[in-house]
Write a structure and sequence with these properties.
Elements: H1 3-9, E1 11-13, E2 16-20, H2 21-28, H3 32-41, E3 52-54, H4 57-64, E4 84-86, H5 88-97, H6 101-160
Antiparallel strand pairs: 1-2, 2-4, 3-4
């Protein structure tokens, strides 16, 4: 399975990047209920939320609805049972539960997809930091240019003031 296809299935729920059980089942070539059965038989491996968690009704509602808050069209497109969301750690743990050659290969690609997404996020954060530094430096340079221009304008005003000689002047008749 292509890494880009896997990446498109990774979503963010509860500030965590996860894959839903139905997407994992499709990738592994098994029915979703069979994947859930394997997880339930080995639930002690997935008890912590940093491995897997079940979606709430509100989260299911958000996934089941389109932007105009209507049900997705077609039979089987809406979520009927609360799905499990597997984090990167949970997907890694699945490889020990689903012990087939296909599962191992798919898991390798899923791990690569998670790593690529994490790397992208790190690169994005680094780019933002560099942009912030650049903007701060540019603002400082603009401030310096503005200050020099202000000083030049003030100096020009002083130079353009009419000169009044000191002492006695003879009035001129125009």
């Amino acid at each position: 399975m292509e890494i880009s296809l896997i990446q498109s299935k990774i979503i963010e729920i509860r500030q965590q990047k996860v894959l839903l059980d139905r997407d994992l089942a499709t990738m592994y070539g098994v029915e979703t209920k069979r994947l859930k059965e394997a997880v339930r038989r080995n639930i002690e491996r997935f008890e912590d939320e940093d491995f897997m968690f079940q979606l709430t009704e509100n989260e299911i509602y958000k996934l089941s609805r389109t932007q105009i808050a209507t049900l997705n069209g077609g039979r089987g497109n809406n979520i009927k049972y609360a799905p499990y969301a597997f984090t990167e750690l949970g997907v890694a743990m699945l490889s020990s539960v689903l012990n087939s050659k296909i599962a191992i290969e798919i898991n390798k690609n899923i791990m690569r997809a998670f790593v690529m997404i994490r790397q992208f996020a790190l690169n994005y954060a680094e780019l933002n930091r560099k942009l912030d530094d650049f903007m701060a430096e540019t603002n400082m340079q603009f401030s310096e240019v503005y200050q020099v221009l202000t000083e030049l304008v003030e100096k020009k005003k002083i130079e353009e003031k009419p000169y009044r000689p000191v002492g006695f002047t003879i009035p001129t008749n125009n």
